[in-house]
């Protein structure tokens, strides 16, 4: 991988077959670095994350993840069939926490069992969890601060604890690259603080983080750089250089923006 980058995008575009997507992406993330994706709803942040996962076709440019490199297919309908795309999409190095996951609160499954789901890619179809898998689950729970609740039924946990448990599920696969889609939505202050501490811990362990968020406090406290996106990449660079009022107003064009040291307030968006 060039310059030890975990993820590299060069002129990349990810486009849904029905149209719509995100383009003009130039980005590199090294081990232990965190990058914030900031932009209005519908700007393409989730599309970018899904594109990295191989769930949305690469239609321009190139992407490198680990040792795998893929370039855009000649036709958008062929993009998902590219062998390199398939290789990195299956790669165990990526962990993903989507914006929302519905788990029936009455379903009889423990937190520990939910986190074990993150080992399934390593287990395959015919192997039961072993000592290494149980150890990985415990480490993941320790990282998010929930090891004491491992046997608790998942539906009995608070919303913030469930969110941290789902993060532990993503970590159980021992990823080198972690993708987070609006992880702070709906969290109270205690769980926000716990998540910030967890992200610092993961960075210290060499995990690369790409996080979609409206939370400028998260970007300033955790992230090394920011990408502003609204259909295309508008700006990227160190947090303090990119998160200026002018840049954010351009990104959220057409709506009123207020910005100070800790908050971004945009009508129609959740302010933090």
Write structural notes for this entry.
The chain has 272 residues and is α/β, with parallel strands linked by helices. The chain folds into two domains: 190 residues, 3-Layer(aba) Sandwich (Rossmann fold), CATH 3.40.50; 74 residues, no CATH class. Helices cover 33% and strands 24% of the residues. It has ten helices and twelve strands. Helix 5 crosses helix 6. The chain is globular, with a radius of gyration of 18 Å.
Instruction: Specify the biggest β-sheet.
Output: 6 strands, mixed
The number of strands is 12
Alpha-carbon distance between the termini? 36 Å
Using only CA atoms, what is the Rg? 18 Å
Question: Taking all residues together, what is the mean pLDDT?
Answer: 83
Oligomeric form? single chain
CATH architecture of the largest domain: 3-Layer(aba) Sandwich
CATH superfamily of the largest domain: P-loop containing nucleotide triphosphate hydrolases
CATH fold-level assignment of the largest domain: Rossmann fold
Number of domains: 2
Q: Stretches where pLDDT falls below 50 for ≥5 residues?
A: 74-81, 83-90, 267-272
Structural class: alpha/beta
Q: Hey, roughly how much beta strand do the residues contain? A: 15-25%
Shape estimate: globular
**Could you give the order of strands across the largest sheet?**
6-7-8-3-9-10
């Amino acid at each position: 991988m060039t310059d030890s980058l975990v993820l590299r995008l060069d002129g990349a575009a990810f486009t849904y077959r029905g149209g719509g997507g995100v383009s003009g992406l130039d980005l590199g993330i090294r081990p232990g670095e965190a990058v914030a994706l900031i932009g209005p709803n519908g700007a393409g942040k989730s599309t970018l994350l899904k594109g990295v996962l191989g769930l949305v076709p690469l239609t321009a440019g190139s992407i490198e993840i680990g040792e795998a490199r893929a370039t855009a297919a000649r036709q958008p309908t062929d993009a998902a069939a590219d062998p390199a795309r398939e290789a990195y999409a299956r790669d165990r190095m990526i962990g993903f926490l989507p914006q929302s996951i519905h788990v029936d609160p009455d379903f009889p499954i423990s937190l520990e069992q939910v986190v074990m789901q993150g080992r399934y890619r390593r287990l395959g179809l015919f192997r039961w969890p072993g000592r290494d898998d149980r150890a990985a689950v415990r480490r993941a729970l320790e990282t998010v601060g929930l090891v004491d609740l491992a046997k608790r039924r998942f539906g009995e946990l608070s919303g913030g604890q469930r969110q941290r448990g789902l993060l532990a599920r993503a970590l159980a696969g021992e990823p080198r690259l972690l993708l987070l889609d609006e992880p702070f939505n709906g969290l109270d202050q205690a769980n926000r603080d716990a998540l910030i501490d967890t992200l610092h811990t993961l960075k210290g362990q060499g995990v690369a983080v790409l996080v979609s968020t409206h939370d400028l406090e998260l970007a300033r406290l955790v992230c090394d750089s920011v990408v502003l996106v609204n259909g295309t990449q508008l700006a990227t660079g160190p947090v303090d250089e990119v998160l200026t009022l002018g840049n954010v107003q351009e990104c959220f064009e057409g709506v009123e923006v207020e910005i100070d040291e800790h908050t971004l307030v945009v009508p129609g968006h959740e302010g933090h």
